[in-house]
Structures are given as structure tokens and as C-alpha cells.
Write a structure and sequence with these properties.
Structural class: alpha+beta
Strand content: 15-25%
CATH topology of one domain: Immunoglobulin-like
Number of helices: 5
Largest sheet: 8 strands, antiparallel
Number of strands: 8
Helix content: 40-55%
Strand order of the largest sheet: 5-4-7-8-1-2-3-6
Order of helices and strands: HHHHHEEEEEEEE
Shape: rod-shaped
Amino acid sequence: MRQHLTQEQADEYAVGALDPEEAVRIALHAESCHACARLVAESERVAAVLLFAVDRVAPPPRLRGRVLRAAGLSAPGPLVWTARLIGAGAGVAAIVVAIAALTGLVSVRSQVKDVEQQNELLQAQIDDALSQKVEIAALTQKLDDQAKEAADIRSTSRLDRDLLLALLSPDSNVAEVFSVDENSFAIGRFIWDPEQRRAWFVASRLPKLSDGQAYQLWVNAAGHYISLGSFNADDSGFARFQALIPQGVDGYENAVVTVEAASGVSERSGPAVFVADLANSRR
């Protein structure tokens, strides 16, 4: 067999409606032809669905007689009649079953194709929904980023306003901060505002520290250094740090900026990089 199988041949083979020789030829051809093997497998799968989908009903007793009479097998003697009856009845029954199976096979195949088309449509709808979900997620993330950016701008604006008020307040103490390193070009300013109970440190040209280190601001009150917190400069060397003045602290003798561990320390131990003399900075 050189040509490919037709759908009809595959269906007949799947339900056993072919004579043995033809069935053997189709089986041998399917073993060497992948396309025909897939076609036969599909027909067998549909035939199996049909087999388990339809309940088996025993034929009425009179069906055999009508089939035999229609086939002209009622004349022979009892033994011959019995032998022929069994053989002919089985053959006719096989033909009837094969015809019914082929008819059902076509119907089931049509239903299977409808289900496959529905699945494809449903999958397309799911893919479209997922695509829209991704787009919505991207838009939501963009809105979140814009909201965060707006919040950062508002926060920076409040810090600028508070710092400006502190600089303009006649009650604030402003000290020029100088670096203890003669080769450093960093400059800074320390502002203490008792009215707002806040202190600021602003600097430029300040080297950005590596991971694990941070600048820590200390104020000396009554001979004891009190930490106001840690900070770092940005990539441009700019730093702005704001801290609340601790309760019970009403004045400072001086302020120092040291290099400490990034987590901050409770006791001053690192080298000093800035010193501010607040005692001589009263306005």
C-alpha cells in the first residue's frame, strides 16, 4: 500500500469493519507511515469514546429470525440451519454493528471537533484576559511609582520648608562646619532650631561612604556626646540630615560628625570628619 489511508479506511479499521486481509495491510502500512498511524490512532480514540458513551442493549429475540429470513437461510435442515444460522447471524450482526459504529464514529468525531473548537476559543479568551491582566498590572505599577514619586516630592518640599524656616528664625543657632581633614573640600552647616525642636546638618562635596559605614551626628551637651542619628551622602556628595532634639536637652556646646558602622553606635568611636562650634554660633 503506497498511498496514504483515507479517513473512511481509518474509521472502518478502527471499528473492525474490514476483512482480515485488508485490516492486515492497513496495520502494516500504519507501522511505516507516521501520518497514517496518527490518523488510525485518532479514529481508534473516537471509536473508544463511542464504545463507552453508548449503553449496550441486547437485540430482541426475533431479530435473528428476521435477519436469517432476509438472508435466505431458513430452508436447510436443522443441523445445517443451525450452523448457518449462527454464522450468518454473526456476520450480519457484525455488519449491522459496523454500520452503526461508523455512523456513530462520524457523529462523535463531529462532536469532538466542536469541543476542540470551543476549547481553542476558550483558550483564546483566557490568553486575552491574561494579556489584559498584565497590562492592568503594568498600569497599576506605573501609577504606584508615580504616587510614590509624588509623595517623595511632597516630603522633600516639607523638609525644604522646615529647613528654610529654621534658617530664617532669629532663635535658631547656625554654625559653619569645617572638615578636620585639610585636604578635604567638603563644606557644611549645622542648624539647631529650639522652636521646632529639630536639628539639621547640610553638607556638600562629602564623599559617599561604602556599604557598612555611615556618617553619625553627635552633639555635646553637659560634657556628654548624644547621637542624633546616621546618614550618608548621595552620589553627588550632597547630604541633608534632619533629627529631633531629645527631650531634656536645651543646649549644645559643639557638634561632631564621625564615621561609624552603618547600623549606628551608642558611643562615639570613629574618626571625626566635621566639627561645629555651637557655643560661638549664637545669633
